[in-house]
Here is the input.
Amino acid sequence: MRPTRPFRPLILAIAMALPLLSSPSLLAEESSIFSQMATAQPVWAKHGMVASQETLASRTGVEILKQGGNAVDAAVAVAFSLAVTLPRAGNIGGGGFMLVHIAKENKTIAIDYREMAPSKAKKDIFLDENGDAVEKLSREHGLAVGVPGTVMGMSLALEKYGTMTLAQVTAPAIKMAQEGISVTPDLAQSLAGLKRRMSQWPTTAAIFYKADGSDFQVDDILKQPELAHSLSLIAEKGTKGFYEGETATKLINAVKDAGGIMTLDDLKNYKVVEREPVRGEYRGYEVVSMPPPSSGGVHIIEMLNVLQQFPIDKLGHNTAQTIHLMAETMKHAYSDRSEYLGDPDFYKVPVKALTSKDYAQKIASQIAMNKTTPSAEIKPGKLAPYESDQTTHFSVVDKWGNAVSNTYTLNFSYGSGLVAKGTGILLNNEMDDFSAKPGVPNGYGLVGGDANAVEGNKRPLSSMSPTIVMKDGKPFLVTGSPGGSRIITTTLQIIMNVIDHGLNIAEASNAARVHHQWLPDELRVESSLNRDTISLLEAKGHKVKVQSAMGSTQSIMVTEQGIFGASDPRHSGSEAIGY
Ligand code: DON
Here is the structure.
């Protein structure tokens, strides 16, 4: 098997020379005042369940299920509700991925409603005259905004796989936006924390802070009448109520005033893509996940394939030996990510090679049991020839055995922070997920090269990993998480905690998490990981960094005893609700 592409040492060299640029306060999932020490027990239900990061949205979804809607109807209602109740990540101005399992046809579809780069976008749009990447341009500027996909994605999902109308599933969101919601501790804290980015835009400040500029307090009422109006136009006119007419004009004016290049045609031409999910096998279970332009599914399967070579159950949960093997595996996967992953409509992503068992064996054979291999010595794998080919997650299952696993985002908390005047719609800064320059880390410290270079109409590479694990052909575990680069490893750990370690879904969600992304060469762990384990990992050569909580998983497990769900305890306000 010969390499088809040489590794570009430039990516490694530049990235190693740069400090990790991401500031923890940028990220949606890290703004919680709650530690990861909270405990919970699984929620049980007989008929159906919704697990989401915000209680009102979970309730909305369950109401839809009770009214006879299916998992897709409920999921779309949850998505529109979160745009109102969890404005830092729920959205109509962003994009994401939805996995839908249709029980009757025994098929799973991956709906890609990721943002697209405006048609005029070019490789060097985020570089200054010296060729250096300018963070502000890809994060807090009109150029940061990708063409939003959420409304088109939800509408397609509903039309093809749901049973209700857009008017029915948007009604709860419209009501909450119009009448207002009570500000939760989570929302109050998050808005106060993001004030700098948000209040540079007067249109945003006018909605999310009080008239005198002060912060909303817990139990204050937050009304979003303009967002209610924008949602009503969608309810009335469908996707045309967003991608054309009044809303479209306002969106484009806002992006242009902020220095962007998006056009009305870009909005009109936005396309949702239905894709074949990526599939893998792990200890007798089938893992079905999101294909490129997500890197999540490919790397979860790649990592599971490697870890399957080791007796993880015997080595034990969160022992130094297990975490060592996981960290070494993660480094290989994220190294491959930097080289091979991008929008498959623009770049041939070697999905088959990366997810093959042969390749996993090769990686496994390079892992030393007692010593870490420095990232500088790990390079993207030499693959077989190419075959032609703040964020929030929610999971839904219904009484018919249908399941939805959905992750969507504005990228950072509240995206670019820019609300398009008169729309109440927060605009994403998803363009930062492109590689602005080879080797220069994005907001999550991720590096990349040509595969993920900026190009007109291209989708930026994502880590979002909505996943469904199947047992005997039926959904067994529906899961996913926010967390930028850490989404992939967080989702991996939920799967391993359940399959390798036999934890129930609440234990699996609560357990201390670890993360390695090749660059920077450090093993990030949560503070609840015990100190003895950390010492043993350090003895193997790992640079261990204890940092804030990672992820906010929303998971549902379907068992013979019924449906069990768990919302990550790392954030207040999230809830799994069943009926
Ligand atoms: O698509 C991605 O990979 C990122 N835009 C996700 C950002 C994210 O998870 C932020 N939340 N914590």
In short: The chain is about 35% helix and 15% strand.
